[in-house]
Amino acid sequence: GAVVSQHPSRVICKSGTSVKIECRSLDFQATTMFWYRQFPKQSLMLMATSNEGSKATYEQGVEKDKFLINHASLTLSTLTVTSAHPEDSSFYICSAIRDRNTEAFFGQGTRLTVV
Amino acid sequence: GQNIDQPTEMTATEGAIVQINCTYQTSGFNGLFWYQQHAGEAPTFLSYNVLDGLEEKGRFSSFLSRSKGYSYLLLKELQMKDSASYLCAVMDSNYQLIWGAGTKLIIKP
Hints:
The complex is a heterodimer.
Chain A: E1 4-7, E2 10-13, E3 19-25, E4 32-38, E5 44-51, E6 57-58, E7 67-73, E8 76-81, E9 90-97, E10 105-106, E11 110-114
Parallel strand pairs in A: 2-11
Antiparallel strand pairs in A: 1-3, 3-8, 4-5, 4-9, 5-6, 7-8, 9-10, 9-11
Chain B: E1 3-5, E2 9-13, E3 18-25, E4 32-37, E5 44-49, E6 53-57, E7 60-65, E8 70-75, E9 84-91, E10 97-99, E11 103-108
Parallel strand pairs in B: 2-11
Antiparallel strand pairs in B: 1-3, 3-8, 4-5, 4-9, 6-7, 7-8, 9-10, 9-11
């Protein structure tokens, strides 16, 4: 199957700082990338949908100024958590699809801890 | 609204068979996916159904009935490593994935 690489896998940062998470599709061009947040023992919560070259579409309740998403190319999307607070601590996962009606391939996830 | 229902938790015995059900109500349908997720890891793709019927892939099979808004994932010859959460997701008319809450499967020796 296709490979999606997410980096870093774990990050600890101080409250008030910003953290950037990268999501790369290594062997295919991703028409769309998705960013999810997952709390312990809960399902994936879609944060935003990102198409290359256009602004991300954020889900209701997700602050676009806090969670900055950039999709600069067909193989790279980034999520920046700005001015992080302890309540932002979570597991963030990206996924990418080649085309519609195809399965989503997931990155390894990033465990963010804000202290 | 859009809704995906699956049991919260199931328990089965090593070597046995287990069926995890998923019912859905979505605005449009462009396929149903099953993913496996081990604790602390990202989901991995198991199956995709867009037409009615059974898709078999090794020890795992997935069934879909679009008229009933129903799918199941069948796991045979259960192994301890199959202990994980199993997520059902439906792609709606906007090609967005709608996720179920997941079924935690516990395998006992």
